[in-house]
TrEMBL record:
InterPro entries: MT-A70-like. Coiled coil: none annotated. Residues 63-72 have a biased composition (Basic residues). This is Methyltransferase-like protein 2 isoform X1. It comes from Solanum pennellii. PANTHER family: N(6)-ADENINE-SPECIFIC METHYLTRANSFERASE METTL4 (PTHR12829:SF4), N6-ADENOSINE-METHYLTRANSFERASE (PTHR12829). Pfam families: MT-A70 (PF05063). Residues 54-78 are annotated as: Disordered. Belongs to the MT-A70-like family.
Amino acid sequence: MEENQLMESGVSQLNSNAFFIDPVRILNRSYTRFRVSPSTYYSRFFDSLNSAQSPKASEDFRKGKRKRKKKIQSLNEREQIADRRHQEVKPFLLKAHEALLEATDLLKVLRNLRNDGCAVGECKELSKETSELSFMELGGVWQAPLYEIVLNYQQDDKTLQNGGSPLAQSIEQRETPVFNNLVANEGSYDIEAELFNHKYIIPKRSCFYMSDMQQIDSLIPAGSDCGFNLIVIDPPWENGSARQKVRYPTLPSRYFLSLPVKQLCHTAGALVALWVTNREKLRDFVENDLFPKWGVTYAASFYWLKVKANGMLTGELDLFHHRPYECLLLGYCDGKDTHSGNLTRSNPIPDNRVFISVPGDYSRKPPIGELLLDYVPGSMPARCIELFAREMIAGWTSWGNEPLHFQDSRYFVSKTTEN
């Protein structure tokens, strides 16, 4: 049963409060001519040693109990608060993980996710010789307003005004500024775009706005009825791991106070989903400063539990500074029509929900928007935006200084190679 659910939708419900998701299957709903390569998405946690081991139910969680108790005594006040939060959510995480380990058919699928559906020659590795464009560097030079991205539309992507038949192989190219400009693919097919001899895949019915934080106000809609019902935010929080690995530039927490979350909301209000690390200092900042500044009322917490290809956790659950899960804080931002009888939340949002997946590249979050749609206020279809996005999804607006990062064509394969 779980296997069939995963194959069809990319989401498999393990119990009433836990889900396993395959981000590749979910992302591939956004594409028609291309698809995300599982071998490039799942670039970690698929080595042969880990895959060969048999998963054992949570025995690592219970090792070293005495050592952990001694360690807790040496924690400072803030760390003790963080540990209490951990102990409160731990039973939900354990129950979710044990449900995964009991789903034997699903575990078989999980072990093969990296090679799933690969045609001959498709299961590729990312070339280390191919350098990626640094969008932050390009956007910081004086020539940035002059840089244009070329969008390659096949003729059948458009509705012809004269009602004529589309030409099968006809390509129309459109050039548009790539920075500080809303770049949209309004067609029903994904398209290939070109920028400085690099190719990017743009999902169907999606758009991106690539800029720094000084330009985000350009996304504020002229009318609040054109605002967003779902706002997902993955800020580049300051953390030691990002600095050490030089993965991406981080920003001090106070910078995020200026995000115009309230102004981006739809008149019916919005569900705001904020990714946070497990640092108690950060949680305290969000609860007491950031959410109040944005006009967001806290509603619930979801948790992303990370596993390897064999179903085991990517790290020990009780390891204080490197726990194998991340938190998604959910809250509501009320709109002007909050009291309207026609625009109401369809379902109360649950707390401590757990979704499990094998992680992709460093800091790449799984696409969880679909798991949130039942709790989004307002009429459907919801208008959705991701702030600090590094990839795109059909039907969404993606904003940040590198929303094309994971749209690089080397992360994709053409569906024509499957035939």
